[in-house]
Amino acid sequence: MLERIGWECAGAISVLPQGHTPQSGSYRALTDEEVWKRIDELPARPYDSDAAVRMSLGGGQSKLLLARYGERWRLPLDGAPSTHILKPEPIYHPGLALAEAWALRVAAAATSAAEAKVMVAEGHLPTLMVTRFDRAIDLDGSIRRTHQEDMCQVLGIPPEIKYAEHPENDRHPSYARFAAVLERGAFEPRVELVRLLEHVTVNLALGNTDAHAKNTSVFRDRSGGLRLTPMYDLAPTLAFINQRHFGMSVAGKFMITEITRDHLVREARVWGVPKRLARAAVDRTLDALRTTGVRAGDDAYPAIRGDVRAIALEQIERLARA
User: From residue 64, how far is each of 4, 35, 171, 219 by CA, in Å?
Assistant: First the structure.
């Protein structure tokens, strides 16, 4: 399986047969019609019968990896790096693509978040277009891979154990264990720990119960130094599924509607963040979401479902006053 679809993955890892290199791939220009046809045919089309398309990206939703130059889409062939992730909206969750794009725009007012837009065309499912933050386009137009690892990889935990369980144990991921890795390996540990607290606060505030260990990642540079990636897969799931159990424990609490600002501060103190700094970071994050973020999300996506917006505002206000 790795030989077939491991040529273009997350981060800077490529699994290729002997004699091939990650730089040996090429691109084929696609029309908009061809792009939508491939989206409609997911999940079958990440791999083509001619063996030229060899890409894979984990997660529960079907995804298409493409490269974009200017206004043109290009299909990466034989391991060529992609620049964008296209996720068609699940038919059983109408409105999710728009909601995730809205949430990422809201989050960007408070912390680093992936860039995303919604693609629409008559007769096709709305599709979330996410710019890959583990790819960069150099001045000469070449695409450069940047290595990233998610929390499961960093902690050496199998991906099927991406959700924490109660009671916590060493087999399951935890923010405390992840924070300890940042403390040891980040260039600026205090900066990264505060940023992690911002990410947890945003997930809670926007109702993302699916904030599991594979949805938090770090960049790892050539010297091994760590820094958090932007937020991604930020879906306000409280508006779509009957799930109140948060993906990770926060100060021993799992129910997203029971976790308070005090729990966030207590969790951060376990990581080594001073109480005053932790409280200031949580308050600053919530204030940015409430005063700037929601307005920016509404301006970008005025068609956002009312319940998605209402649940987020309720969560923000509850955390702010708790």
Answer: 16, 9, 32, 22
